[in-house]
Write a structure and sequence with these properties.
The longest helix is centred in the middle third of the chain and has 34 residues. Helix 1 runs antiparallel to helix 4. The protein folds into two domains: 176 residues, Four Helix Bundle (Hemerythrin (Met), subunit A), CATH 1.20.120; 215 residues, paralog of FGE (formylglycine-generating enzyme) (Alpha-Beta Complex), CATH 3.90.1580.10. A hairpin with a 2-residue loop joins strand 6 and strand 7. It has nine helices and twelve strands. The strands form four sheets. The chain has a four-stranded mixed sheet with strand order 10-9-8-11. Strands 1-4-12 form a three-stranded antiparallel sheet, with helices on one face. A three-stranded antiparallel sheet has the order 5-6-7. With 421 residues, it is α+β, with helices and mostly antiparallel strands.
Length: 421
């Protein structure tokens, strides 16, 4: 399957806009302008297939309306770039900081997350005007700033751009969840197709016992949770070269996987029972055949495609049923760094059994942006890789995604690990 037209490749500068050795050749202001506008335009491309009514709906507390994603990412630049570093800038609207702040307590009060769908006003057209206003102000600021100012602010701009790319992915996953609640199963993009997977090579990648460096090691862009790079003992372990498929998951289902309590963590079986899970998220049985809700609408389940929309609890139960395990994030990183895993990127995020916790010596950055990652380092699990909804240029081998173990509305799947007896 191809990505939706709204997610076409863009020339996002990567690695960093400014390296430790200074700005690259060329006009640094234009480099920032080009990078900024490329990301901002991608958000609008992803929102373009949506009607104004689509952009208001919030189908569950964990999701946000498309209109809110577009506004929040705009507020980020208004708040942290223009508001903090451009004295002549006046906010577009005095209420927007309250409406579109997410969880930055240091930046002030905010509208309740679970009530974002009640914001029928401002409308989608007003958010478009907001985005254009802030974009024009940012471009003007870049073009008028001195080179030393641009170099100092480039890391902040890069955080903002990567933050917006995260919301570009959420824009698709959240609208898919909303459309899945609609009995007519509307399509975000009728031409969308699931990406083709790879199945070549030996079935297992073998890692001997050894000490490996994990974490980000250079000055290219990364989030603070990817550092400090440190040494970790990995192996002996074997990782499945391929992702688990729908066909393999169907065998798990036929064998009573969702009904066998001994396969599940206690909290997982409680979640499966209370939520009535009998199959992955978005699967529906129609006339005795399994179908799945996709960005193109309802489609038959392809047994050869990687399984998608499974929670950590389900992934762990499947691994136990298989007589295997889920890998740790360190094992995944070592194998992926050596290009040994098929489809490590671009199809589904892959659950690991690693708790989302700080690396040894981690310190959150100072100020409001220090709230970006550090305060979430508890009760969540790490996923590695990237998904079909991840924007081009956003993934890397050290990227640490994280969700709660019951979450399954993201494009999440798994690969297995095996240990010597």
């Amino acid at each position: 399957m191809t990505k939706p037209a709204a997610a076409a490749a863009l020339p996002i500068p990567n690695p960093s806009l400014f390296s430790a050795s200074g700005p690259p050749a060329g006009d640094p202001a234009q480099r920032l302008v080009d990078a900024y506008l490329a990301v901002r335009e991608e958000t609008e491309r992803r929102a373009a297939p949506l009607a104004p009514e689509d952009q208001v709906v919030q189908s569950m507390p964990d999701a946000s309306p498309a209109k809110w994603h577009r506004a929040h990412t705009t507020w980020f630049f208004e708040q942290f770039l223009l508001g903090a570093h451009c004295p002549a800038y006046a906010p577009f609207h005095p209420d927007y900081a309250f409406l579109f702040n997410s969880y930055y307590v240091s930046a002030g009060p905010r509208h309740a997350r679970n009530a974002r769908g009640l914001l029928t006003r401002p409308g989608a057209a007003e958010i478009t005007a907001y985005r254009r206003h802030v974009d024009a102000a940012v471009v003007k600021f870049f073009q008028g700033a001195a080179a030393d100012v641009l170099k100092r602010l480039a890391p902040l701009v890069e955080v903002g751009l990567n933050h917006e790319q995260q919301h570009q992915e959420l824009l698709l996953t959240d609208i898919l969840h909303a459309f899945s609640q609609n009995p007519v199963f509307p399509a975000y993009d009728p031409a969308w197709r699931f990406p083709a997977s790879s199945r070549g090579g030996e079935a297992w990648v073998h890692l001997n016992e050894g000490i490996h460096t994990v974490g980000h090691t250079d000055d290219s862009f990364h989030f603070d949770n990817e550092k400090p790079a440190h040494r970790a003992l990995v192996g002996p372990v074997s990782l499945a070269r391929n992702l688990v498929t729908n066909g393999e998951w169907l065998a798990f289902m036929r064998d009573g996987g969702y009904r066998t309590a001994t396969l599940w963590l206690m909290d997982g079986f409680a979640a499966a029972s209370s939520e009535g899970w009998q199959a992955p998220g978005y699967w529906r049985e129609v006339d005795g055949e399994w179908h799945v809700m996709t960005l193109a609408g309802l489609a038959p389940v392809d047994p050869d495609a990687p399984v998608c929309h499974v929670s950590y609890y389900e992934a762990d139960a499947f691994a136990r049923w298989s007589g295997k395990h889920l890998p740790t994030e360190m094992e995944w990183e070592v194998a992926a760094r050596n290009d040994q895993l098929n489809d490590a990127f671009g199809i589904v995020w892959q659950w690991t059994r690693s708790a989302y916790s700080p690396y040894p010596g981690y310190r959150a950055i100072e100020g409001a942006l220090g709230e970006y990652n550090g305060k979430f380092m508890v009760n969540q699990l790490v996923l590695r890789g990237s998904s079909l909804a991840t924007p081009d240029g956003h993934s890397r081998v050290t990227y640490r995604n994280f969700f709660y173990p019951h979450h399954r509305w993201q494009f999440t799947g798994l690969r297995l690990a095996d240990y010597p007896a």
